Amino acid sequence: MAEALEALRARLAVIAGLDHAASVLGWDQETMMPPGGTASRARGMAAVGRVAHELGTSAEYGRLLEVAEAEVAASGADPDGDDARLAWVARRDYDRNVRLPADFVAELREAEVVGTQAWQAAREADDYAQFAPQLDRLVALQRRLADYLGYADHPYDALLDAFEPEMTTADVRRVFADLRARTVPLVRAIAANTGAVDDACLHQPFDEDAQWALARDLTERFGYDYARGRMDRSAHPFTSSFGPDDVRLTVRLQPDFFNPCFFAAAHECGHATHAQGVPERFAGTPLDGSASSGIGESQSRLWENLVARGRDFWRYYYPRVRETFPAQFGDVSEERVYRAVNKAGPSPIRVEADEVTYNLHIMLRFDLEVALIEGTLGVAE
Amino acid sequence: MAEALEALRARLAVIAGLDHAASVLGWDQETMMPPGGTASRARGMAAVGRVAHELGTSAEYGRLLEVAEAEVAASGADPDGDDARLAWVARRDYDRNVRLPADFVAELREAEVVGTQAWQAAREADDYAQFAPQLDRLVALQRRLADYLGYADHPYDALLDAFEPEMTTADVRRVFADLRARTVPLVRAIAANTGAVDDACLHQPFDEDAQWALARDLTERFGYDYARGRMDRSAHPFTSSFGPDDVRLTVRLQPDFFNPCFFAAAHECGHATHAQGVPERFAGTPLDGSASSGIGESQSRLWENLVARGRDFWRYYYPRVRETFPAQFGDVSEERVYRAVNKAGPSPIRVEADEVTYNLHIMLRFDLEVALIEGTLGVAE
To answer: What is this structure's pTM?
Structure first.
């Protein structure tokens, strides 16, 4: 009888249920919520965040966790088995969360809702200045978060650990230095020769309903199950899992550029099939979800760049694309479209980038985030 | 310094935030959720319900409420003022909720999610038998709810009190007996003469996008603010408030009948403008929302039947309807359409009924619910 483990499981199920609610609130905010709804949503998100935090950091919970860990250890359970990993993840989350005051968690959740809304409005108005004060507040909160969590070496370590467990800023710098040494000369060589690939065929008017239908077809063929998901529009594409039985992806559409919708659908579909593939027995536990952002991106980029920009894929799928857009692609050969979708080069936006440029963006984003947390870069810059 | 009252307010704000989350989960289930998402949603709803219940019934909360009440009483506050009413509503909710075990609340919330999904599926398949076991379970839970809550006279009193505070089954029977004595002969007289009104003009094909646009225009003219709301489709029309800044309504569309979308929009708009009209200072408190279902329906039926079926309204608005559907209404006079939308008579569905038939439906529904709770009517019947 693993009594404490069962009690821990029950408690974790309640916390997972609150996380489910928080995920739905977040998804709704970015896809459905009317612009006026920010204040109520911020209060709702803060309440759910606060309560989940309190449940998962109470003294009683800490004791329960200890007893459950002892139970698992005494049972001689497989250290890679579900019970041992559940206890391990619960311990990691507890040790992290217990350092944060509940008021701070509520403030952070509230600021994220308000900040996201401000970002959307600023993006629509193409006015960064309007977002800058919110970003300033968010960065300040992330610095406080790092201080609460503590770190041996670099404040960004504390934040990185939440999405890339046990990796440090120094680790990432090492990996990226190596990657950068190979990528930069490659991108330079490509940039010197951008005229070599003609991608004019991708920059034409594309009917939005037809783009949508194509994205739907593509994601279905990639194995995304619409009985357990749906596709919507949002300012920036994302995937949100409310459990393996309800994983939703979003795309955005540009009326005159083929890539954003098509490759965002492929990318998000990678995240979404990953999340739909979580075994049902992990539903309602902290074992639901991706092991890390890196693992998650490995899935999205597999489908976006290795599959959907692959030669075999275009041999197979181009007839369908052509049938959807005969006026645009009728006289474009398979070879030409294959080269066009793989055209590399500097681009300001991550989503529609090829694999090489994508890497540059990831590295840049990492440098930016680290510099903002260090304070070596200001929000105004 | 009303210290306890402020502490009570803070606690109520957290509970209201959880209620916000529960409302969003419920709205999402009926409008957006993929069919596969039921299990995760049921877990999420049960968790949010359980935690809100525990927060609002703890011994510590009970003590806080007592001290806050004493503070308000000692302050000589206006008994109809915000502070006194807040304490009164908090007390009413506490006295009610404290009788319910948290496990029961979680079970009820879970059953409501599963039951709603089963109802939707059965409705789509037009197969009542498929829903019957779920209805059976829901009725059994309502009986247990009544037993937990307690009642002096009739088990339905305990349930009625939740949406029509301080009214009893006997009260409603008295009101309805009077209403029925006047309504039944009226409906009989009407039924004997159904040929007198020709409503064929309402039973024609109506383009769904055009119906939608008309409903949008109508609700805007009735004062519904889309910056703080949105309109969607659902199996049965409803309005859901997440706070005065985010109140959403739904309609359903029939391709060959004018009434369902148009009058559902008018009806739900009554609820929605009522909810959007709640003063901002009540947001995030238990004073947000309608005082009772009866008050709520007074608003929805005001707009649906007294306004949108009124002669003055059709004089004003018919040009817009005709412009939207020239083929259907081009040669239908204002007098004929006014009589058609007011055609009374037995109808199986509440939403598109005139005021008189509506009353019959409300009375029937009351009798049905009371009989199910009494057990004098079985689910199979």
So the answer is: 0.95
